[in-house]
Amino acid sequence: MTALLFVPAFCIVALLAYMGRFSGRLRVDEVRVLAVPLETLRAQLLDFARWQAWNPWLEHARAAPVLLSGTAGQPGHALAWEQGAAGVGRLTLTRLRKSDGVDMSLACLEPFKFRARTRWQLEAVPGGTRVHWSLRGRVGFSMRAFAKTVQGMLALDLRHGLSRLAAQLEHRPEQAYTISYLGVRELPAQRCACRPYRGPLADLPAAVPGVVAALRAELQAAGQPGDGQALAVYLRTQIKQRRTDCRIGVPGEAVGDQLQHEIPAHRAYVLRLQGPLAALETAWYQGMQRLRIEALEPDLRIPPFERYLRAPLDPASAHNEVELYLPMRAAPSDKSV
């Protein structure tokens, strides 16, 4: 009997010791220059009634009601939301720092629990305002081992929020992007001629045009059209290191030392990015969030991929259109008995 009690007690102590190795601290910084006067930007931040259009934690619940309390622009002013799978959280204005800084507290219960202090540091610069949005916090004890992952997700939240805020205030279409959620589609099987890419996620958009041009030339020299829409298939992505092992390809039969990649027929959740390709990392993150919110189960056997709908591809262009495909498992009603 003593041994039976010892084993679970030992496992609990071992687990606590393992979790104790991680601090659970969160540290995120995003900096951007917005072409907006400092006072205009500050007024936007101090009134939570204006946050609905760009709050990154309400990306998937823009039309949902929120609870406002306190007086706009005064410490104690708060914005709270409880939107089911979209999340539960509260943002509170805590301190005003003269004309250049705003402090807030952020508490989230869903989709994961954490508390943080967030600060907006504003500086007038030629052409607008330099914004430094920082977040310092800690996840709950049970999430300590995943703190780095949570930190990466929060970095994408802050980046997306600043992009939304810029689109709201700057009216500069050449820098704006939009993400549209298109829902579930049935996709046919496809064969592609590819080249490998291994490296930083941020460098992938710049690598695609050259690889695609070379693939098309090689396929056309071999008597194939080589003119289908280019794509990138993500074989393995390291979120924390922001690196990926993927294949860049075009529809066709591989020639020479090209790689042949086969995409099987499957169901996928589809979203579309319109704008500069620097936003692709954020778009993928929002797509994964959408699967969670809609309770859809990803099919990890099939790599996700993106298809570039416009050619020629210019990574910095506001006219890019890219569809992202997240493979899903068949619904129980779709399975044969």
Description:
This protein has 337 residues and is of the alpha+beta class. It has two domains: 23-172, Alpha-D-Glucose-1,6-Bisphosphate, Chain A, domain 4; 181-334, Regulatory factor, effector binding domain (Multidrug-efflux Transporter 1 Regulator Bmrr, Chain A). It is built from five helices and 15 strands. It has helices at residues 2-20, 38-46, 147-169, 204-221, 280-293; strands spanning 25-34, 67-69, 78-82, 88-97, 101-110, 114-125, 128-139, 178-187, 190-200, 231-238, 243-251, 259-263, 266-274, 305-308, 321-328. Strands 8-13-15-14-10-11-9-12 form an eight-stranded antiparallel beta sheet. Strands 1-7-6-5-4-3-2 form a seven-stranded antiparallel beta sheet. Strand 2 and strand 3 (78-82) form a beta hairpin. The longest helix has 23 residues, at 147-169. The two termini are 46 Å apart. The relative contact order is 0.12. Mean pLDDT is 85; it is low at 3-23.
